Amino acid sequence: MNAVIDVEGLRMRYGSYDVLHDVTFQVQKGEVLALLGPNGAGKSTTIEILEGFRMRSAGRVEVLGVDPAHGDEAWRARLGIVLQSWRDHGKWRVRELLAHLGSFYTAYSSDTVRRPWDPDELVAAVGLTRQAGQKIMRLSGGQRRRLDVAIGIVGRPDLLFLDEPTAGFDPEARYDFHELVRELATIQATTILLTTHDLDEAEKLADRIMILKGGRIMANGTVDELTRQVAADGERRTLEETYLSWVRAAEVAS
Ligand SMILES: Nc1ncnc2c1ncn2[C@@H]1O[C@H](COP(=O)(O)OP(=O)(O)OP(=O)(O)O)[C@@H](O)[C@H]1O
Q1: Is it the case that residue 230 has pLDDT exceeding 80?
Q2: Domain membership flag for residue 177
Q3: Most informative mutation of 45, 197, 216 for ligand 1 (most atoms within 8 A of CB)
Q4: DSSP 93
Q5: Where is the ABC transporter domain (predicted)?
Q6: CB of 159 within 8 A of CB of 62?
Q7: If you take atom 29 of ligand 1, which residue's CA is the nearest one?
Q8: Alpha-carbon span 180 to 169, nearest angstrom
Q9: ipTM reported for the complex, 2 dp
Q10: Is the Cβ–Cβ distance between 82 and 161 less than 8 Å?
Q11: Tell me: the pLDDT tens digits for 61-94?
Q12: Whose CB among 27, 44, 92, 254 lies 3.0–4.6 Å from 97's, allowing a Cys bridge?
């Protein structure tokens, strides 16, 4: 079976500065991959290349079988992107905006995937039923993030990109969001690539974790595999200890 994301030898250079060096990885259908790494590691650059928003310097990239540099509208309709807060359309109401944005996906509905997501079901899925008739500018920060997620999934994407999805969520919203991600991955077989600085979140949600540092992949595996790799003395490490050991080892080496 073909991978949903297939990246080989990806390089990115801004001016004379290389920010991605020979990055190679795959993500399979229905898999949740958490991309971790310190600020400036190259996470956003990688994701923007996969989304087709940024041209790469070199390497082979396929997303849903297509080179993102040449992705058309039908390809784009199969992607969901949760950006860092939707600031436009403040006067629109929540349900109204979701129905409007969803209408662009009707043309891409198929026998297997009914697009878009019904707006009432969607507001319920992200916990905004009580705010469905409210203007967007009146939403709290956490409610806006829930709306961002709803906007990202309104087209029932095959592949969903989540960039620090729960930043600003209260614990209940976070819990509900984690349930939703699990449901998308397990019931709808949505493939998910998320970036987060929250290691608990990565451990809860991800089937596999990839640690990027200085534009290189330092580690790629399940939590169990990664924690065992650093536990040379046989003692079990937490994901946090494991993460720090990869990131600090890289600092010494670089
Ligand atoms: N448009 C650009 N022009 C030049 N350099 C850039 C540009 N965008 C990003 N960079 C540089 O590329 C490197 C990787 O940045 P990127 O935003 O991909 O990191 P990140 O891992 O997403 O970081 P964060 O966790 O802070 O979001 C950084 O050194 C950054 O300064």
Answers
A1: no
A2: yes
A3: 45
A4: B
A5: 5-239
A6: no
A7: 40
A8: 14
A9: 0.95
A10: yes
A11: 999 999 999 999 999 999 999 876 656 777 899 9
A12: 92
Q: Please report the sign of the dihedral spanned by the C-alpha atoms of residue 120, residue 151, residue 79, residue 88.
A: positive
CA gap 231, 217 in Å, rounded: 19
Distance CA 116, CA 120 (A): 11
Residue 110's CATH number? 3.40.50.300
Q: How many helices (DSSP H) and strands (DSSP E) are in the chain?
A: 9, 9
pTM attached to this predicted model: 0.91
Is 168 among the domain residues?
yes
- Element holding 220 (H helix, E strand): strand 216-221
SS3 assignment, position 249: helix
As given in the structure block, the two tokens for residue 234 are 């046989």
Q: Whose CA is nearest to atom 7 of ligand 1?
A: 14
209: tokens are: 């974790």
Containing structural domain, residue 133: 29-51+73-253
> What tens digit of pLDDT does each residue of 136-186 get?
999 988 788 889 889 999 999 999 999 888 877 788 888 888 988 888 898
From CA 152, how far away is CA 250, in angstroms rounded? 34
Mutate to test the pocket of ligand 1, among 44, 197, 247 (most ligand atoms within 8 A of CB): 44
Residue 59 lies in a domain: no
**Ligand 1 nearest atom to the CA of residue 45, by list position:** 18
- Does 16 map to a domain? no
